[in-house]
Amino acid sequence: MSPAVPTHQEAGSQAGQPHLADLVVFGGTGDLSMRKLIPALYHADRDGRLAPQTRVIAMSRGGLTDDDFRGKVDAEVRGQVPIDDPEMWQRFLGRLHHVSVDVGSDDKSGWDGLAKLLAGHEERDRVYYLASPPRTFGPFCRELQGAGLVTPHSRVVLEKPLGNDLRSAQAINDEVGAIFDEHQIFRIDHYLGKETVQNLLVLRFANAFLEPIWNSLWIDHVQITVAETVGTPGRRGYYDHAGALRDMVQNHLLQLLTLTAMEAPARNDREAVRDEKVKVLQALRPIIGGEVGRFTVRGQYTEAGDMPGYLDEPGSTPPTEASRQVETFTAIRAEIKNWRWAGVPFYLRTGKRMPYRRSEIVVQFKDVPHSIFPGGSPNRLILRLQPEEGIELHIMAKEPGAGETTLRPVPLSLSFGETFTARVPEAYERLLTDVLAGNPTLFMRRDEVEAAWRWIDPILEAWKADPALPEPYAAGTTGPAAAHELLSRSGRAWHDQEDV
Ligand code: BG6
């Protein structure tokens, strides 16, 4: 293990000043880097959040020179970002470098190139961002250490997926943990970088009025939905072995659940916040054996109109048995066994090729204890993460008019776009800024990732043992019928279904 590292408050620059860092992106010419990381870094630079000498070093097997890489970024990223000052863009390109390293091969010469570039800058923070498949994490870290490039001010950033079950996640954590201390490891879940997700904490813990009613006495159930219109063209190689449960629920949806359900941390700091999130994951009631069929649903989209089914998505390897088995949609009824939430179902739902792109948390309150008006419906709080971030509280109001009182639910609505005119940063901008500042609060700790897998594993096992295929749903619809039955059997409905 590397020597103890000062915390981000102690290390590097003064508070508020950008940290001087070398950011090494392994997989630096890949899709994630070109679509998300480089644009996010450009925005950070434009907003003055990169220290003047900060360098971005892309690592790949590509054999590119610095100039080749800058040309590639100029060609591929220029159109994705606003360039109001061409000189600034040139300065940003000047920060970029490329080194060719073939991780896992016998040829270690590439590491000399990286060592040479980093030499003489040992005082800088070093951030190694692994935008590569998880099987490369262990070998990368070992070779990095072998090349003598892990300094006390080094950090490593791991992209998801972090394993495909508890055992593989533990193995990755062990391998990386043999080289880096836990506080140097930043496990990304990009949902935590989304503005509205952070706003959820502010809404809950910077306002007093919600806390007294944020519990099973007042809340009937919670719905967490991440619906996407996209399918999986060209991704079968990955998706056949992931599926919606591993790809979305184990990380993004469970993160939303923890933030919705956690107790107030004593401080807004790295350990206090994450301690509370872990407690929620540990309190999730396991869904095991025969319960899996009752509390979970899996579906796979089929052809509809001009949208191909999962098995016919273009640009992919031919479908196999694994393709037929994999779920592109899942819905789960979860429960949190603690004092605050006992008896409150948390319904989780995510799917590809749904009719709309929508990520939201819907908190459904209980009905009034005794109604004196006909036609009322319970209050509902909707936290919309995307698109059009906002918060809506649905309250009952009287329709104007003489005669009989007629009720109508109306939203008290906060649109972030209309209220705050500043540009909403992309999730990766916030997360990269935090990595560079050494602040891990919005990153997943080892025990958090493993607690999530511990809850997911029995569901995966039961699905694997079940010969039934996922239930088909037509592309462009809200998922299989069973997803609706999951709620309707207790007299509830997905909130978008009530509007249909
Ligand atoms: C990724 C998943 O983590 O999140 C993708 O691998 C998914 O399958 C994506 O499409 C969704 O992210 P966002 O930010 O578009 O909601």
Defining traits:
single chain; 500 residues; alpha/beta; Rossmann fold; Dihydrodipicolinate Reductase, domain 2; 2 domains; 9-stranded mixed β-sheet; 6-stranded parallel β-sheet; 15 strands; 35% helix; globular; disordered N terminus; binds 6-O-phosphono-beta-D-glucopyranose; NADP binding; glucose metabolism; carbohydrate metabolism; Glucose-6-phosphate 1-dehydrogenase
Which small-molecule species are bound to the chains here? 6-O-phosphono-beta-D-glucopyranose
The second-level CATH architecture of the largest domain is 2-Layer Sandwich
- Helix content estimate: 25-40%
Radius of gyration over all CA atoms, rounded? 24 Å
Q: How many β-strand runs?
A: 15
First and last CA, distance: 56 Å
Helix/strand/pairing category: alpha/beta
What does it look like?
- With 500 residues, the protein is an alpha/beta fold.
- The protein has two domains: 10-187, 3-Layer(aba) Sandwich (Rossmann fold); 192-425 and 445-488, 2-Layer Sandwich (Dihydrodipicolinate Reductase, domain 2).
- It is 35% helix and 20% strand.
- It has a nine-stranded mixed sheet, with helices on both faces. A six-stranded parallel sheet has the order 3-2-1-4-5-6, sandwiched between helices.
- Strand 12 and strand 13 form a beta hairpin.
- Mean pLDDT is 92; it is low at 1-15.
- The structure holds 6-O-phosphono-beta-D-glucopyranose (BG6).
- 6-O-phosphono-beta-D-glucopyranose binds at residues 228, 247, 359.
- This is Glucose-6-phosphate 1-dehydrogenase.
- It catalyses: D-glucose 6-phosphate + NADP(+) = 6-phospho-D-glucono-1,5-lactone + NADPH + H(+).
- InterPro entries: G6P_DH (IPR001282), G6P_DH_AS (IPR019796), G6P_DH_C (IPR022675), G6P_DH_NAD-bd (IPR022674), NAD(P)-bd_dom_sf (IPR036291).
- Pathway: Carbohydrate degradation; pentose phosphate pathway; D-ribulose 5-phosphate from D-glucose 6-phosphate (oxidative stage): step 1/3.
- It is an enzyme of class 1 (oxidoreductase).
